[in-house]
Amino acid sequence: MLQEESDLSLVIAQIVQKLRGSNLYAQLERQAWACLQRPEIKLESLKEDIKEFFKISGWEKKLQNAVYSELSVFPLPSHPAAPPEHLKEPLVYMRKAQGSWEKRILKSLNSMCTELSIPLARKRPVGEQKELLNKWNEMGTDEPDLSLFRPVYAPKDFLEVLINLRNPNYENGDSLSFRTHLGLIQVPLKVKDIPELKEFFVELGLTTGQLGIDDSTQVPPELFENEHVRIGQKVLAEQDGAAAQQYIRQGSPTALRADLWALILNISSQPEDILYYEQLKTNVIQHDLLVDSLIYKDVKLTASNDDYYFVFEDYLYQVLLCFSRDTSVLGHFAYNSASPPKSYIRGKLGLEEYAVFYPPNGVIPFHGFSMYVAPLCFLYHEPSKLYQIFREMYVRFFFRLHSISSHPSGIVSLCLLFETLLQTYLPQLFYHLREIGAQPLRISFKWMVRAFSGYLATDQLLLLWDRILGYNSLEILAVLAAAVFAFRAVNLMEVTSLAAAEKITE
């Protein structure tokens, strides 16, 4: 009991510390000073009167939403004596694997620099700055020569690394139960079974109405939809982030989705947020980074060729170029198993005082990275708001899809959950595909690593992302991937090659 109280005190202290540096804290301070001038505020009941003022004026709700938002990204509880790196990743072999992977990515980036004889970063000449500023809203019309640039890595390269992951403690085959796992992922992590998934995703049960699903429910679909929209409007009127998160577990009405997601992610476009975005834009105008070309190349290879997203090409450049300069993103490395890559000022290699994070946000884009942004363009048309939503989605969820960790929402756990579900509940199908050299994970990995973006129609994808936000978990991706195989099981039992299996699951 004392330990629990101590843990809670620690969590409260850390959240208070985090909020002290936020815009909200400054606003609350200003409001508190302003309310002291009000006649109803009495000195003898000062504390209670200010609390009451905050409650009536809506500031209490904003503070609650901020605290709830912080709790959503708070690291899993660990032993107080655990070293700091355990907050990033408790398993040593996972940390080592992630470190090796980072070195490989950096080596690929540096060799590209050497081959092409271009610097990692340079200041743009004044003429080039003016030109970029003038075409900021139509960057898609610009066709730089990107033929020499290649993605630093693709999902299939990352999958090969995950396949070779091993826990050294199990090298001698100690784990009899795990030896029966016939999938590609060979690390013993605890993942949910069907009863646990049913309990966790209880609102997705067959007896509960779901937006976007035509299956017959206990009430006529239009009746459920009308009632669901009414409740959604009420949740928005209350401005309660926790209620909004619970609400969208059954799907969000299209008209309310943008506001509900912003409420859950605790995003409100304040003047200072717009100013911050403009500063990032200025950084893009002034400095040219090698990763800019990687971003251009990725958008051209993915979103520009997608029937749904090609119209948002300019938005994608704007958001991703600004994202690469945003040093506030570095904060998520406190609970990410990855570490931001460092570069050294020319001639000062190895001297830490001359080291800088590169790119400034610490995130090197890979093939398909721009597809994390593309679906959000349907919801947000104001660049700074779109930017804030994407940044928050990334530091809460998407980073877990391309870093090696033991987190339940990490890509390793998702792969293992997917393979375990298939092997347990569709053993014949799993064995058949394995025997013909079409391991199911080789097909589903690219879906999960991109959170199904580019693989589902946008309306379906947004309903899926509703559930990611609603449950604050990416585990739904593995469940959906397994469900696709279950849905196509009869046809998949007939295939004789990986290519044929991929065709059927498209």
Describe the protein.
- The protein has 506 residues and is mainly α.
- The chain is built from 24 helices and 4 strands.
- Helix content is 55%, strand content 2%.
- The chain has a two-stranded antiparallel ribbon with strand order 1-2. Strands 3-4 form a two-stranded antiparallel ribbon.
Amount of helix: 55-70%
**Shape label:** globular
Helix and strand composition category: mainly alpha
Tally of alpha and pi helices: 24
Roughly what fraction of the amino acids lie in strands?
Answer: under 5%
- SS elements, strand count: 4
The main pleated sheet reads as: 2 strands, antiparallel
The SSE string, one letter per element, is: HHHHHHEHHHHHHHHEHHEEHHHHHHHH
Radius of gyration: 24 Å
Termini separation comes to: 52 Å
Mean pLDDT: 85
Low-confidence stretches: none
State the strand order across the main sheet. 1-2
Labels describing this entry:
single chain, about 500 residues, mainly alpha, two-stranded antiparallel ribbon, 24 helices, 4 strands, globular
List the helices and strands and how they pair.
Layout (H helix, E strand, L loop, with lengths): L1 H19 L2 H13 L10 H12 L1 H15 L11 H4 L3 H25 L4 E3 L2 H9 L20 H9 L12 H4 L14 H7 L20 H18 L2 H7 L6 H11 L6 H16 E3 H12 L11 H13 L16 E3 L10 E3 L25 H14 L14 H15 L1 H9 L4 H10 L8 H14 L3 H13 L1 H4 L5 H7 L2
Antiparallel strand pairs: 1-2, 3-4
